[in-house]
Amino acid sequence: MLVLMLVLVLVLVLVLVLVLVLVLVLVLVLVLVLVLVLVLVLVLVLVLVLVLVLVLVLVLVLVLVLVLVLVLVLVLVLVLVLVLVLVLVLVLVLVLVLVLVLVLVLVLKWEPARLRKMPLPALGTLLTNTMHLWLRSEVKANEHRTALTPEACKELLGEGYTITVERSPEASTKRIYEDSDYEAVGCQLAESQSWPSAPKDAIIVGLKELPEDGSPLEHTHLYFGHCYKNQGGWKDLLKRFHAGNGSLLDMEFLTNDQGRRVAAFGYMAGFAGSFSALDVWCHRKLEGDKPYGALSAYPNEDELLKYSRARIEAAAAKNDGRLPRVLVIGALGRCGNGACDFATRAGIPEANVLRWDMAETKVGGPFNELLDVDIFVNCIYLSQPIPPFITEAMLEKEDRALSVVCDVSCDTSNPHNPIPFANKSTTFDEPTYQVKPKVGGPVDVITIDHLPTLLPKESSDRYCHDLLPSIRELKNMDSNPVWQRAIKLFEEKKALALA
Ligand SMILES: NC(=O)c1ccc[n+]([C@@H]2O[C@H](COP(=O)([O-])OP(=O)(O)OC[C@H]3O[C@@H](n4cnc5c(N)ncnc54)[C@H](O)[C@@H]3O)[C@@H](O)[C@H]2O)c1
What we know:
Layout: H1 2-107, H2 112-117, H3 120-128, E1 132-135, H4 150-158, E2 162-166, H5 179-184, E3 188-190, E4 203-205, E5 220-223, H6 234-244, E6 247-250, H7 266-287, H8 301-317, E7 326-329, H9 334-345, E8 353-356, H10 358-361, E9 375-378, E10 404-407, E11 432-435, E12 443-446, H11 456-472, H12 481-498
Parallel strand pairs: 1-2, 1-4, 2-3, 4-5, 5-6, 7-8, 7-9, 9-10, 10-12
Antiparallel strand pairs: 11-12
């Protein structure tokens, strides 16, 4: 029994141990399983995290790629739009150029060769359809004349010209027409001598010299340049035009197809010359040896004639009622015509006015007939060597009537001057000098070279009247013969000055 009990106990113990071992094994297995589960869970979590990160990265990359693609598409669209705009602009420009060329060719009869040679003012006119004239103020003392009167400006403005007029405030150079007269007809007023800042395509219109400051001349100037006959400083002036790329349309050389000047101050020069000669004659009859005073401009022809008629009447009364005899050589020309007209209008009878021209002088001088008249007015255009009309030696004659010589032609320095003793210029301040032969009394000589200034109004009116038809043609200066000749002459003279 005991053994049985012992065996039983042993079996029990064994069973217990087995159970324990089993329990232990079970616990171990459980722990292992738990650990495994944990590891699995961890691995799963890690895998999940990795997958998430990968997904995120992928999404980011996708977004970036999308943005890049979008930007590229935008840039492409922009470039396309730009190209389209450029193409459109080019097409527009081409169409405009085509229209311009068509207008030029069909409407304005444009030829490329003509355009290349076109002076700046004409080119400006072609493009803007207006010609700009700029009437400058004068700087030469006693110059009151103008090449453009307000009336002419009014006409030109009506024809589409633009006209600027410089004020002329200085008394000694005051234009015969008031600034306000120009303003009233629609001209723009500008400051005196402001023409250097005028638009480059404006034509600067004047009469006498420009300020001699050596500055380059950038405009086209229309005035008396006095530089085509090798006068003092001619090269310097032409070089100024060259330096500034400007040009000169010299008023003295504007000629028509027959070679005649289109406008000249000759008539009024003769008119004023004849007046001054008669006035000096009157002065000697009325005042004897007293020096003859200064001459100054008259407001108009009527006042000059009124004054002169009264003087002649008074002088004739002191000369036994005898009116002077006047001989005009070159009487058929502009100056001669004016000289004869003044004499007759001032009251000298037609019979006392002797008119000589080529026919009367063709036998060749000198001419004793000149000693038998009281006044000799020379108005010829000296173009070739001729023998003198009268010499100083001839004046030595007791019964000589001649006492006044007015040399309107003023060829004082010409070696073929037909009045050799008229060899220096006189002025408005000192209009005469005397030649004193041993017998026969002194002879007063007048050699003023700007006689028309004595009557600035009529001189301006007449000159402007004759010049106006050519001024109207300035719009077509690239084809008009008057202006073409003037441009050609300028180019020739400039080339000579630069040679
Ligand atoms: N002193 C001044 O203020 C002034 C102003 C303007 C013009 N001028 C000068 O007056 C002169 C004449 O100018 P214009 O416009 O009357 O010229 P113009 O051509 O109109 O007239 C000249 C006349 O002189 C005649 N003539 C020429 N040679 C002659 C001769 N040997 N004998 C006789 N007659 C002759 C011609 O047949 C013509 O009729 C020019 O020398 C000009 O420069 C002077």
